[in-house]
Amino acid sequence: MTDLIDRPSDLAAEPPHGGTHELHDDHHEHHGPSGILKWLTTTDHKIIGINYTVTSIIMMVIGGAFAEIIRAQLVSPTNTLVSLQQYNQLFTMHGSVMIYLFVGPFAFAGLANYLVPLQVGAPDMAFPRLNALSYWLYLTGSITMLLGFLTTSGAPAFGWVGYAPLTSAINAPGAGADLWIGALLLTGFSAIFSGVNLVATIFYLRAPGMTLFRMPIFTWNMLVTGILILLAFPVLTAGLIMLYCDRHFGTHIFSVSGGGVPLLWQHIFWFWGHPEVYILALPFFGMVTDIIPVFSRKPLFGYRGMVFATLTIAALSLGVWAHHMFTTGAVLLPFFSIMSLLIAVPTGIKIFNWIGTMWGGQVIYSTAMLMSIGFVITFLLGGITGIYLASPPLDFFTHDTYFVVAHFHSVVMALLMGAMAGLYFWGPKITGRMLNERIGKAQFWFLFIGTQVFTLPGYVVGLHGMPRRMAVYPNNTSWQTLNQWESIGALLIGISVILFVVNIVVAWKKPVIAGDNPWDAHTLEWYTTSPPPHHNYLSLPPIRSERPTWDFNHPDYPALIHGTDHGPATTAATNEKAEV
Amino acid sequence: MMPIGIWRLSTRQCHRGSELPQVGPESLRSDAVETVALSHGSSVADTSPKRRRSARRALLLALAAPVLLTGCQLPSFGAYEGVSKAGNDTFKLWQGFSIAAVVIGGGTFLLILWAAMRYRAKGDKIPKQTQYNIPLEIIYTIVPILVVIGLFAATVVVENEVVANPTPQATINVSAFQWGWKFTYPHHKAVIVGQTTQSPVMVMPADEDVRINLRSLDVLHGFYVPKFNFSRYAQPGLLNTFTFKVTKTGLYDAQCAQLCGLYHSLMYFKVRVLPRDEFNAWLAREDSKTSTATAVAAAGAVDAALNPNIPTIPATSHGAN
Q1: I need a surface site. Which of A190, A482, A498, B308 has the fewest CB within 10 A?
Q2: What is the per-residue pLDDT across A454-481, written as a single tens digit (0 to 9) for each?
Q3: Which of A330, A392, A401 sits opposite B257 (nearest CB)?
Q4: Are the CB atoms for B116 and A547 separated by under 8 Å?
Q5: Do A221 and A286 form a contact (C-beta atoms < 8 A)?
Q6: Best residue in B132, B223, B252 for a mutation probing chain A (most A CBs within 10 Å)
Q7: B176 forms bridges with which residues in the sheet?
Q8: Contact, A380 vs B109, CB < 8 A?
Q9: Among candidates B101, B200, B211, which has minimal Cα distance to B147?
Q10: Global pTM?
Q11: Alpha carbon A545 to chain centroid distance?
């Protein structure tokens, strides 16, 4: 097997830009513009990935600030911190920024952009210029959406779902709504281009030996996410164009007075919106699925089952959109109910596989691992409450209440923990520096406890009948107490984000060098340097299983063959910490 | 009043709780966890005391099941019991789902904690590189499918009852608008209109099937009565029809649940459920009010101005004359 070890990859051996350089290119391009111009003109997937990640984290902070104002408003029933209109704008923009500008772009265009070529052993994405265009569309779209606050009528106030006819020119006059539509078109195209790039890269640019069933689960999930993006986002784009025509060109697609059907918007929106939930979630599933085995010092339990679970989730997710519309009285309840309930099965398989991976392992409590365990627990809560909502009679009395709000915040806060796990895990690969573990663990506890303190009272206040999107509420003792608990939770989450920023500053000011593979990790990206050189690899290890780097560093353990167990070949393996 | 906190409710004891202290959700949960944990290691031969203990627990569970399923013993899991017939059945479905959630979710939660804490790294030894256990994977694929089928079956039964539209004994036309409600009674002059915090009161008879014809005059609204365990969108251009049979008289809070613009937070109404004779008296009183004629005219004008295409609703009221 050693004959392959130092074989230079074709792409690293051939100077990619026709220049005279070099196998020892360190982390920088030695040609082309430098400094700010380099960042503006780059087509390098790693720099674009960092651009995406940083921009999306800024969006998270902005969206989080909106959330803190919302929670401050709800501390007392008749608070006047913000006006009714401002409140409606705030929750609209909170949802819009978080969903359209943070969670999705962070995952499928930020970390994925950085990691997918590395994980499959490719020099870059399949279409680097399209990739750059994707980022600039996203940035432009993000600014466009936020500009709504500067218009005379303010930001849109119709909720992030923009249900017709509240979005009509009469009900939502002003440029804020148009900027919102424009922003979604821009970020929508950005997402579609990212999807094209992901699918093409994964299908066509895999290194020799990297078969589909040796890909890391993160890359698998990004493949499925890319396909879902291509199926779902064009539908939203079409709907937005219809909406714009209704507002400005006198069409009546969503207005009753001209013979249109407002309900159509909900179908279009959720036909995008529910696959979108999995477009958001699958990348984070992938992240924790790559992280948990590393810190359990075991291979992933049930790799193939995991892949088929992901595919099943994706397939089912295309047939569940109307579970958001049970209370319209205009959808086939049993069909959408059983389809939604069935999603619990592959999701359960994933959770059991994560447990099975830890089972019998050597679980190391690093920040990334704690965040991953926090993800699994919080996602379990969000998933279980989702099962209630898949049952129409139960949805009838929880729909549009804080029960639903708490349900999807359990889910998205789990995703945030997944995001943090990913940043703590891959941050050293991206920057070459370790993040401080002590601050990281403090951040984890603030985030985890804050999340539960925030969501659990939400379930209860929802069952007590408090609808969502209320700036003021009746003077009701139980509602007020529960809302105050939720606000405390939101505050704790805010502190965790501040700790994260502090940690980045600490890593910036007092660097701790990470090395190529600080975690004894499994997948291909840990074979190259941290950060990786231009075009990623100077050489590739033999790829004979789903964890080529681990195989390379532990030569006395036979590579994994599906379906069999392997004990340690020798006890010498225990101290194996091979350098690359 | 509802005590605050689902955690407190879930440990609430029934009035007979002292006689059967071991029968309750807590013992149910621990049993289920034990079962799950055992099935996880089922490939290994069970030691006999373990098996005896699990058999005893399974027997206890089987004995407890009928008691648990009578409904009296179950905690509410935070939800309202529902003052209507369908609402109460929805509540029972909620309890069933909650038991499944506590057993399966709680069991899985404990498994996660156990795996993370029991196998915490001790030293630098590389553990056995287990990758697959096909029988186990099949079990945790098949069992959830069976659970889902069970939940779906229960859902369909209750759902059919909730959305059933039996021939009503009274009918109320409800129109939602920005930001208030209008209630009219076919064949009667009574019109109740109110905006935002005026909280108009919808009056309905108890123990009878009452049909609601729900529509919106402008944007989407949500007709939500928490204690009925029910809500439905009011939509422009689309008539929604559903039926309540409320078994408890009283005054119930209700409000718009679906974001409908600026004053959405203030779009309240109330539902007063009266015995039939009191309802008749109320209806006669409303009809005789001289002001109603103008109210009807005004409300009609609102309708016409906001939406000329509102379908005419057929009068289906049988009683109330």
Answers
A1: B308
A2: 999 999 999 999 999 999 999 888 899 9
A3: A401
A4: no
A5: yes
A6: B132
A7: B181, B216
A8: yes
A9: B101
A10: 0.84
A11: 26
